[in-house]
Amino acid sequence: MQSNKTNSWFTYVLMLCSMYLLSVKAHGEEPKQESVLLRYDLGQQGGWIPYQQSAQRGKLGIFEEVTLLIQELTGIEFEAVHFPPKRAEKALLDGLVDFDFVCLEWLKEGRSSAQFVYSNPIFNVSEYVVTLPENAAAVPDRSAIYNKPVGTIAGYFYVDDDQFKRMDFLNEESLLLGLKHQRFTSIIIEKETAKYWAKLLDIEISFAAPHTLGSIIIRLRDDKREWLPIINQAIETIKESGQLASLLEKHGIKAEIPATQ
Q: What is the pLDDT of residues 165-181, one digit of tens each?
């Protein structure tokens, strides 16, 4: 008797489900899927121009424009948050943000951390040891700064910062002003960012020696790894379509866009 009651109840539930699906189809509706939201850090105002912030007031920086292109192709929603540089890494580790844009050549651990998965390369960046012109000859390569005070940004990654004495500043503008006033003879800074601030502050600089050369990638928390394949597919699409090159050119950057190995 109990088995018959169970079968009757099961049949009734199936009938209700069928009626619902027919109703949805008749009204041209599709069952809604849960939306995906991934948060990432864009730093504070004036930080890492033109990547985190645009050089033009009221415009989007490169990273935000890249996420919008990926969003159009994947349906993933991206939300930018703003942490100070020293707080940003902890926010990523704590899960307050889901990913960041980074160059693996800056990191001592490279891609060995089990906490993250890594996207295909997006575009290349060049970080330099920058000096005033009269001091450039004293820095033929990056080892020339070892055991010396070097201007840096608090919270930024430098793969060899155990080899020199960091003199941390809050942002790139302060860093360039420190160089101008000879608080130190060398700073480490990304090339396009250095060019922007040097022009704005009317400081003549020299790119004395490369410090780290590599590609910007998305470093995604491992608990979000399921979204990496479609993010990678979107990255390849915007590279192959020319959208990424156009975006970079709009910001005055002619960066190399590497092919995925």
A: 999 999 999 999 999 99
